[in-house]
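Hi R.,

Here are the chain sequences for the assembly we discussed:
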Amino acid sequence: MSKNSKVVEKESAVIKFVGDSGDGMQLTGSLFSDTAALFGNDLATFPDYPAEIRAPHNTIFGVSGFQVQIGSIKINSSGDFCDVLVAMNPASLKANLKWVKKNGIIIVDSDSFDKKALAKSGYEENPLENGSLDDYKVVKAPVSTIAKESLSGLSLSPKAALRSKNMVALGITGCLFNQDINSTYKFIEKKFKDKDTVIESNKKALAAGYDYARKNETFETTFFVPKADFPKGRYRNITGNVATAWGFLAAAERSGRELFLGSYPITPATEILIELAEHKSLGAKVFQAEDEIAGICSAIGASYTGALGITTTSGPGFSLKSEAIGLAVITELPLVIVNVQRAGPSTGMPTKSEQSDLMQALYGRNGECPVIVISASSPANCFYYAYEAAKLSIEHMTPAVLLTEGSLGNGSELFRIPSVEDLPEITPPIAKPNDPEYKPYARDPVTLARKWALPGTEGLRHRIGGLEKFNIEGNPTTDPLNHELMTKLREDKVKRVENYIPEQPIVGEDSGDLLVIGWGSTFGPINTAVKQLQSEGKKISHTHFHYIKPFPKNTGEILRNFKKILVCELNAGQLVKHLRIEHPEHQYLQYNKIQGLPFVVHELKEKFNEIL
Amino acid sequence: MSRIRVPLSEVKLTKEDFVSDQIVKWCPGCGGHAILKAVETAFPETGFRKENFAFISGIGCSSRFPYYINTYGIHGIHGRANSIASGVKIANTGLSVWITTGDGDSMAIGGNHFIHTIRRNIDVNILLFNNQIYGLTKGQYSPTTPKGQITRTSPYGTIEHPFNPAGLVMGAMGTFFARVLDSNVKMMTEVVRESAKHDGTAVVEILQNCIIFADKAFSYLTDKEQKDDFQIHLKHGEPMLFGKNNSKGIVLRDNRLQIIKVGENKQDDKNILIHDQYDTDPGIHRMLGFMRPPEMPRAFGVIRAARFDTYDHLMEDQIDNAKKRSAIKCVDDLLNSGETFEVN
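And here is the predicted structure of the full complex:
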C-alpha cells in the first residue's frame, strides 16, 4: 500500500479476474482464493470460461473469468457485482464492465489497450481516455511492462515473460487486499512442483506486482477482510467435483466396498474422473471407457460383483446412458450416476451451467423406470450428497442419480473437514454363503431391497438381466400380473426411501405470504435474497430441495402453509412441473432464468417483492 | 507367465455341476445346443471353482446363454456385454468371465466395445456365435453376412462388405483368436479350455448354423467332398498340413500364404510353416485368419495366443504400488492432505 493509504475493513468483497482464455485467469483466481482461505476468510468462487482452450486473442467470446467473494461473514455465493475487476485486455473489460459496482475499482493492464486490441474488442475509442469510466476508480497499471522488467534477469523470451503477467495482476490485487504474499508463494511452489523456472518467474512477477501497488500512489485506500468466524474445526478450500469424488471415496471406505468408476471425459464432469484416477492408494478402480455407454455398463458389471459402481457425466452423456440406467433399475443393483449439468439441448453451451436435466433424471427412460434423484446445492456439500447417493443406492439396491451443476463442480468454497467415522453407517445387504432362503428377487419386507449376492459366493449362483423377472424366483417371464407387481414393487421401493431421508427444512417461519422453492446451485442467491427481505419484515421463507425423488415426507405440509409459492430454477420450469404432478393441490408461480448464468440476488429480490 | 487368479475347485467337478434348471429355448437343430454342450464339458476341465464363473451377454439368440448354464451371470443390453464384462473382471479378477455374443451384438451395435475390450486385453473370454444373420429379429443381414446375400432387409442382395472377426481382432491388437465350427464339439471343447487358460481377451469365433434364417451357411466347409480341402486344423508346434491324408501344406512365398503339394519338392516340404500360436508378431496369424476357400482352406483351431500384459493385472499392480508408496492410506488422510487450516 502507498505511504498515505489507509486500510478500510470490509466484511465481504467480490473480486473478478478476467482476460483471454490463455491468460491464466483460472489459476490467478484460484491462487487469490487459496490465499484468502488459508488466512481464514470464508469464500465462494465461480469460474466462467469459454469452451475453446485458447480462443482468439482480444475477443469477447474468448473471455475467461474467475469470480470470488471473500468475507468475514458467511459467504454462500460468489456474489452479484464486483468491488474489484481485474481486466487483462480491452475485450474482457468490455464484457464485464456491467458487473462492476459503481465506484468499484477496475485494474487494467494499460499496455494491452493498443489500437489493434481496442478495435478487435469493438471499442471505437480508448475507454481509459474518453471519460467513460469516470464512475469507477481505474488503476492503469503497465502490467505487461512490469512482467517483462521483473523477469529480465531470467533470460526468458519476451513471450515467455509475458506469460507471467497474470501473476503481476495477482500481486497488485493481493496488495490491495493486504494478503500475505508468502502464502501465495507456497501455493505456487506446490502447483508447479519440479518446474523450478516456472516457480521462479511466477514468484518474481507476483512480487513485482505487489511492489508496484505498494509504491504507487494510486491506491488511496486498501482493504482488509478479517477472518471469518467459523465453527471450530479443520477447513480446506474444495471444488464441487473434487468434493463429489471424495464423497464417493468416503462411501466406499465406510461401506467396505471397492470403488469402481466407469466414465468418459465430458465437460464439466471430467474433474471427478481425474480426481478419482489419482487415488489408487485408496484402491479406487477407475476405468476410462471408450464411450459413455461403456462407462455406465462397466459400472453395472462392477456393481454386480459387489463394488460401489459409479458413472459420471453431463447432459449429452446422460442421454446415452439412459438404456443402461434401465438395466440397473430392473436388475436392482446399486449404481450412482452423476450428472454435472450444463446448458443444453445437445451440445448446448458446455461450459455454462443450467438445471435442465431434472426431467430427464426423473422420467427420461423407456418403461416405468424409477430411480432415486438427489442434488447438491454448494461445492462443499457435493461431498455429503455424493456420500448420500451411494448410501441410499447400496442400502436400497436401486440406482441413484446425483445432480450437480457446472457452477457447483468448478466452483469452490470452504469445507469443514469431517471425520469418516462420523459419517452415517452404510450397510450393504449382502447375501450370506449357502443361504438356503436366498432367491434373487426375494425382498427385505421393510425397504423392499433384494439381497446383493456376489459372484464367487458359495451356494448363490444366479442370473439377473434386462428381461422382466418373476418376483422372488428371478427367472425371466412375461406373466401379465407379475409384470404389474414388479413395476409397482420397483416404484414402491424408491418411494420408501422417504423413510430414510431427513425432513425438508425451511429457512424462516413455517407459514407466511410467500414460500420460495429452489434446488441445486441456486441456494446461495435465493437464501441471501430471502434473508434480506425477512430482515425488512416480509413474511417470506425459503425451502431448498436436495431430495427430489422421493420428496421428503413433510413436503406437503410445508407447501400448505403459504399464501403463494414461487419456484425459482435455472431452466424453463422442471421442478415446478414435478411439484405439480406430486402435489397438484397447490398453485405454483415460477421464476426461470435460462442464460447459462446463476441468479443474482437483486433480480430475485425484485421478483419476490413483485409477488409480495 | 500366467497370472490367472481364479481359485481352483476343491472337489472334482463334472458337466452336471453346470447344467441349469431352465428350459433351453433355442430352435431344435440350432448350433447353440452344441456350444452349450462344449462349454459344460470344458468347464470342469479348467479346474476353476464353479462359483467363480460369470457369464455376461447382450441381446440376441446367443445372449440367452447365461440362463442355460448354472453360473453367475448377467443378461445385459444390446451390444454392451463386453462393457459389462469389463467391469465384472476389473472389479473382481478372481472370476473367470465369459461373454456370449453374436455377429449383430458384437460386430454391429457393440462393435466399439468389442474392439476396445480386445485392445485393452482385459482377461475375458468372448464366445462369438457367428451365424451371419440376425436370428432373434428374424432374418435381417448382419455385418458378417456375405456380400450379395438376399435377406429380409436386402431383397436385392446386400451391398456391404462383411467383417471378418479375425481381422477386427488382429486390427485391435488382439492376443487370442480361435475359430471353430459348431459341428465339431471336440475341437470346440478344446478351444474353450485353451481360451480359459489364456491370460487376456480371448475371442473364439464359432461358425454357427442358423437353421431357420441362414441354414447351410457353412455347408461349403463341412461338405464331405470338399471339407478336407477347405479346412485346416491348426495345432501349435505342428506343420500346417491339410487335405486328404495331409497331402497339402502351407508355405510363405512371395509374401503370401500359398499351398504346395507335399512330397513333390523337397525344398518346398522343408518350407511348410510350423504353427506358432504364441508368436507375438501377428503377421502370419492375420494371414491365417483371412484365408478363404476356394483358393485357400479356412483356418480352424487356436490361430493366435500371444502373451501380453492384461489390463486387469496392470491395474492391480498400479494399485498395489500406490498403496505401498502413498502417504494417503485412508480417506481421513486424503481429507486432511494439502493446504488446510484449523479454527479453534
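The longest strand of chain B covers residues 298-305. Chain B touches chain A through 60 residues (CB under 8 Å).

Let me know if anything looks off.

Best,
T.
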